[in-house]
Amino acid sequence: MIFIRHFSVLIIITCQLSSFSQSFTDDKIDSLISIMTLEEKIGQLTLFTSDWATTGPTIRENYLEDIRSGRAGNIFNAHTAAYNRSLQKVAIEESRLGIPLLFGYDVIHGYKTIFPIPLGEAATWDLELIERAARIAAEEATAGGLHWTFAPMVDIARDPRWGRIAEGAGEDVYLGSLIAAARVRGFQGNDLTKNNTLLACAKHFAAYGAAQAGRDYHTVDISKRTLWETYLPPFKACVDAGAMTFMTSFNELDGIPASAHRYLLEEILRDTWKFEGFVVSDYTSINEMVPHGYAANNKDAGRLAINAGLDMDMQGAVYYDYLEDLLAEGEVSIQTIDLSVKRILQAKNKLGLFDDPYRYSDEQREKEVVLSSANKELAREIARNSMVLLKNQNSVLPLQDSDQIALIGPLADSPIDMLGSWHAAGQANQTTSVLHAFNQAGKKVAYAQGCTIEGTDTSGFSEAIEKGETADKIIMVVGEHFNMSGEAASRSQIRIPDIQQLLIKRLSELNKPIILVLISGRPLCLNWELQIADAIIEAWQPGTMAGPAILDVLSGDHNPSGKLPVTFPRNEGQIPIFYNVKNTGRPMQPDNKYSSKYLDVANDPLFPFGYGLSYTTFSYANMSVDKTEISDQEDLNFSVTLTNSGSVAGHEIVQLYMRDPVASVTRPVKELKRFEKVFLQPSESKEVKFSLSTEELKFYNSDLQWVFEPGEFRFGIGPDSDVELTLNVVLK
Ligand code: NOJ
């Protein structure tokens, strides 16, 4: 058996299999491991990028050689059915054992059909839509030869300076955990052996969102309580939803880089949560333990990482270069290496790759599925549901047919900026801008770019002003370019760039209604704009169907219903600012100097978590709970009558919040506990009901045990996190 070249042959010889897919078991994986050389084993623990080039996917010659020699068992960034098939062919036909490659890629919010950035998707509060978007992303990506997505990113983010806030579900633990699970379900489906399901990867484990000062890759120093209460729950939700892989984060946590954090990887993830998949490092995060000051050199970093339970090395070539020596020196055991190899082979097996390594490389399916009109329709649907109406003075929106419109701004016709920083294989030329959407719909607008996104050139202002002068309403599409958020894109000032602010100011001097459509990957400070603009829509980075979705909202074909998944500060000095803060011993009192506040800005945000307007209005009445006292094992049943008190149909996202006012460990002033998206015709009412078990009243006590304590609890139901908590219940 020593010279067996093709794995299929091996299986037949060793296992006498008649059908690989039915019978490839753990035992067979063990037999395979038993005949692998050390070099081949290390190859399975190695992930290299394919070096996508502008003219198409290419792979450095030595990586092809690495695939041939079994030294690179996994590749990322390579995609398309044809190209990945060609790489797989090298692995299957030219390597000694023919073990299939695993192809990964950052399919974060779509493959070619790009959905809104995850922060935007979260603003829908619509778990079904979010799951469907992930499902479509998986269908397209698998048709493009991929097996594994580096998503969902489930880092709770409470600092909008941090560019990667764009990639997650925002600030809330409860909403974030539900969305995390929905996205895992969407990517992985319910049967990984199907050729349209992807391995999901919960990232970045853990607490990456707590980077000091919002600067990417920066130190994280939080309490264990904050880790367990705030940062871990979405990861746990991913494990419970069956996520097959995890990615470590770049940051250190309590002095230990996440890629060598045994407490995270072994004690929490594997021992406590019973995770059975494999863990990959982030890009060169093993090597980065050297500048972190945790490892003396790359070899030392490799020793620390593999012994802490990190199975696969992304791009760092540390395992590739040093595992053999570490084993020879007794610094790593062969059992440790074999265990990691086994986890990775099991994942390949779950995908059915041993059955048919080419099952994801079907060019016909790729043609049919990728960018199909049904997929684009879903992208439009989720994009328009993600938009949050922040202001609408005098009902300036929706537009009237008779309105003469001036469409101004550097983002009105900039398709690439609609896609966000992680747009996978999404392309600008497949993306519809706002201007294009107006033209397609046959709606006349006077368009001028006015200025670039950043810079100082005001030469386009006069044309913009001229167009504005002849209009009834001025729509300005303004904000950030696609690379101003995402990885390595933190900003200390999160405002609309100066040149655009100047353009807004000039146009506002025309005294026409100004409607701002914001394109951004994060909350922006909009204090000044809020005074000047008549209407503001936060459109995030809406994806392939940005233009039509924005037009749907502007025209009223879609009544906006998005709610903020993250707080919008008044200025950067308030950051971090989020709704479920603690009360302090000196809660803010306007007339008491010695209370917790600023001298120069209010404590409250510009827009709270959960906030968002509609073209209709909703009223809340008869809020009630069925018990004023409960004991363990009892449920609380809440109800509220929601009425559409305006004149158009619309969705409202009804939110239930709780506070535990006295506990052995102080609790936040509010915690989101339930929500429901409700559709009502004008004048229609509905009784919205929520039920909570005592499980939902629990928290981590000072010993980090998950407990509830007798006493009073307060609840409130309303349209956002500003709701008053007026219902009291006592837990006996
Ligand atoms: C680094 C990023 O932090 C991570 O999210 C991503 O998946 C990898 N690069 C691969 O592109």
How would you describe what is shown here?
The chain has 23 helices and 28 strands. It has 732 residues and is α/β, with parallel strands linked by helices. The chain folds into five domains: 1-35, no CATH class; 40-104, no CATH class; 105-365, TIM Barrel (Alpha-Beta Barrel); 372-566, 3-Layer(aba) Sandwich (Rossmann fold); 618-731, Immunoglobulin-like (Sandwich). The strands form eight sheets. The protein has a six-stranded mixed sheet with strand order 13-18-17-16-14-15, with helices on both faces. The chain has a five-stranded parallel sheet with strand order 6-5-4-1-12. A five-stranded mixed sheet has the order 20-28-27-22-23. Residues 1-23 have low confidence and may be disordered. 1-deoxynojirimycin (NOJ) is lined by residues 106, 150, 203, 282-283, 487.
Q: What hetero molecules are bound to the protein chains?
A: 1-deoxynojirimycin
The class by helix and strand makeup works out as alpha/beta
CATH class of the largest domain: Alpha Beta
What is the CATH homologous superfamily assignment of the largest domain? Answer: Glycoside hydrolase, family 3, N-terminal domain
Proportion of residues in extended strands:
15-25%
What's the shape? globular
Could you give the count of β-strands? 28
**CATH 2nd-level architecture of the largest domain:** Alpha-Beta Barrel
The major pleated sheet works out as: 6 strands, mixed
Low-pLDDT runs of 5+ residues are: 1-23
